[in-house]
Amino acid sequence: MEPFDLNQLKFDQNGLIPAIVQDATDGQVLTLAYMNRESLRLTLETGLTHFYSRSRQRIWQKGEESGHVQQVREIYVDCDEDALVVKAEQVVAACHTGRRSCFFTRLHPSPEASGEVTQRLFDPDAVYAGSLAILQQVFEVITDRKANPKADSYVSRLFEKGQDQILKKVGEESAELVVASKNGQHAEIIHELADLWFHTLVLLAHHGLTPKEGAEELRRRFGKTGKGDPR
Known about the structure:
By secondary structure, this protein is an alpha+beta fold. It has eight helices and six strands. The strands form two sheets. The chain has a four-stranded mixed sheet with strand order 2-1-6-5, covered by helices on one side. It has a two-stranded antiparallel sheet with strand order 3-4.
């Protein structure tokens, strides 16, 4: 197949072309944004999505502030050569609300009209992305402390002491969460849960794993009978 000539693209009167971003793995539509020639050039050169903001009147890289970048895998142009589809690997969330996709509100049929209120109340993509965002931010600090140890860092000291110490802390925090649950104090439960999550993130980093992999495993199980499905 001949390489596509970018000069064939049809930008609108404002020099823009719509770009639909899809998850490269499952095809989920993540967002709709606009590119001009320069932002498309940057996208092709860097492998990270760049768009043109109509409100701010400037080019911006997705994730330039949040770190939620989109790593481009493929780009397609439609038959009229006036729209793009970008298949990308999304880091954490595409939407500024913290959700995986910007398209999380169903217009038709209405959830209330169809009796499927739980569809809106429990959106696995929203839970996955929104909750994962803070975990990812904490995890990035943890991995930095592993790669760049600091003398005054608790996390760096954990990595220095090795797996046995990390496992000991996970065990201790698990036991403390059990005690908090027996006490029935909600604030105490949340406090101990956060401690446990934190130390499991350290454990993941020790093994070179990521919280995203754990979240993806839950997504894989969701809707299947058995352990891991809440329904």
